Amino acid sequence: MSPAPVDPGAGAAAPFTAAMIQMRTGLSPEASFGQAATLIRQARNDGADYVLTPEMSNLMQENRKSLFALLQDEDHDSSLTSYRTLARELKIVVHVGSLAVRVSPDRAANRSFLIDPAGEIVARYDKIHMFDVDLDNGETYRESANYSPGEAAVVAETPWGRLGLSICYDLRFPALYRALAEAGASFITIPSAFTKRTGEAHWHVLMRARAIETGCYVFAAAQGGKHENGRETYGHSLIVDPWGTVIAEGGTEPGVVMARIDPAMVTTIRRGIPSLQHGRRFTVMDPASAPGHLHLVRS
Fold first, then answer.
1. 8 Å CB contact between 225 and 189
2. Which pTM value belongs to this model?
3. Is 196 in the active site?
4. 276 vs 23, 26, 296, CA distance in Å?
5. Residue 1: pLDDT band by 50, 70, 90 thresholds?
6. Which is catalytic among the residues 168, 182, 196, 216?
7. Under a CB-based contact definition with an 8 Å cutoff, are residues 125 and 158 in contact?
8. Which of 113, 135, 231, 249 has the fewest other C-beta atoms within 10 Å?
9. CATH number assigned to the domain with residue range 16-274, chosen from the 4 options 2.40.110.20, 3.60.110.10, 1.10.490.160, 3.90.190.10
10. Of these residues, 74, 127, 196, 232, which one is catalytic?
């Protein structure tokens, strides 16, 4: 039997305004934070209560030697310190989609940080699924060459309900999102740096699918455009409601994408389509042992 999902409907929180900070991260952590800070201030001035930045908000560096020359551990990371100071100054929830942080002399983590309005880190999440692919257009990515994968899914408490954390390539593993929803998440975050090619093909349909199958809001702040390191990312930061409707979307340029979020809609949608309550365990039968299985006869 699947675990019973936590019902977020009891005492649903008041609506709030969420803002996706779309960036074009460069090679310098200082310049990248400056870009983010300007956009976060803009979002706050426009009424945002919660802001999310994309994956790799501090730097996008493919060269291993150059990457590790810039990396710092969490306790000494200047970008993280700056984000915490900004959250405290603006009295806003700042969710850093991810930073590259050093976890050993030769390994890094792709780590998300949820920061409260007092500047305290209330949740961390290390990206579980590593993006190791060879695309047919010649692009090659080996995230596992530099980064250690996380091992735990994370759900965090916010003033508006539970928030499930994930990062980019995690998007392609729906079991993670089912687990987050069954743990009571009403909102799922998918900060990303999707390639242009895969984004054009899969971005919208996968984001909408994750919202529909969980009955959650999906928050997806994205990198967009041509970066200093030559990589081109898709952009199109999204906010998707629990019905699967895109309620806010960006383009390819840096900017702010905002929407008003009603937590009560999660309850309404899940009551109408209670699929989280109907999950059942099952086995996959080996076709060779199934009665009446087909045999291929060659003459």
1. no
2. 0.91
3. no
4. 34, 40, 40
5. very low
6. 168
7. no
8. 135
9. 3.60.110.10
10. 127
